[in-house]
Design goal:
Elements (H helix, E strand, L loop, with lengths): L4 E5 L3 H12 L4 E5 L5 H10 L2 H4 L5 E4 L10 E4 L11 H22 L4 E4 L4 H12 L6 E3 L2 H16 L6 E2 L2 E2 L7 E2 L5 E2 L2 E2 H9 L2 H16 L1 H9 L6 H15 L4 E10 L5 E12 L2 E5 L6 H23 L3
Parallel strand pairs: 1-2, 1-4, 2-3, 4-5, 5-6
Antiparallel strand pairs: 7-10, 8-9, 10-11, 12-13, 13-14
The chain binds adenosine-5-diphosphoribose.
Amino acid sequence: MPRKKIALIGGGQIGGVLAQLIAQKELGDVVLFDIVEDLPQGKCLDIAEASRVDLFDNSIKGTNDYKDIEGSDIVIITAGLPRKPGMSRDDLLVTNAKIMQTVAENVKQYAPNSTVIVVSNPLDAMVTLCQKITGFPTNKVIGQAGVLDSSRFSTFIAWELGVSVKDINALVLGGHGDTMVPLIRYANVNGIPVMELLERKYNDKTKAKEVMDAMVNRTKMAGGEIVKLLKTGSAFYSPASSSIAMVKAILFDEKRVLPTCAYLNGEFGINGYYVGVPAVLGANGAEKILELTLNDEEKAMMDNSVKAVKELVADMERLGF
Ligand code: APR
């Protein structure tokens, strides 16, 4: 069987880690594209020179020519600028939407049969624009946000309870912003509700709720916490790892249930928008959306998050995209 081909559009922080992870895990041949001359070539040469040590023989090619992504099975888009001091959300939206326009046109031309995973921010708007421009089926254009947000939530829960993160199941739905919806009620440790364990730990329902609320807030602000520490950029190791989980699910038709920024056709009562929801990821991309019952409080949070996504998309359309 020929190797799978994975194109990475954007050879910055996330793109570089993605290339290394794909190589080390031997998921397929890598093409790393960036508009900055020599940057992707340099990163790929550096990664390839570790092939003897890490024992992989995938092809790893850096390029400034879109033609090299021809025939890719999967395309991961991280091209775009992070927000800088003084930039409004609209500024970032315009800048990254312009970048996405070019990227998506080239993906459409050179990798028409690919499944696309968008990582660039503002995520919900960028996925929407990418699908619109490529015209690919909505199940084949998805966004990465929820895998990371859920992993962050799980990590904080594991630290708090002193148990292995491998046994935590926690789900974050909604848009990729401050309005995201970490689902407290469904969070569990191998089936045991996290809230029950917290209440037992503190023997105090109010304190348990406070601890959970703090973890929820930290999850919502986790991206900003990293930006504050790094000072020159945003998170890149964890977004790359999260995208790899999605890539593997698609490449190996795993049918994994991962929180995905997916297009909704009435699920959760939402029509015609990309929102973070649990999706079955397999060879056909987001093959199915799994709905779950939300109580009134959760539904109100989800509605609020969807409202923010709709506003973002409306802003983008108002700006001419
Ligand atoms: N085409 C291709 N690549 C581009 C283009 C373009 N038109 N414009 C910019 N780029 C490249 C930049 O040259 C840079 O190498 O995109 C890369 C972005 O890399 P970083 O600035 O290091 O950003 P990174 O941390 O990788 O995050 C990328 O993902 O999580 C989001 O908010 C984050 O939107 C950002 C994106």
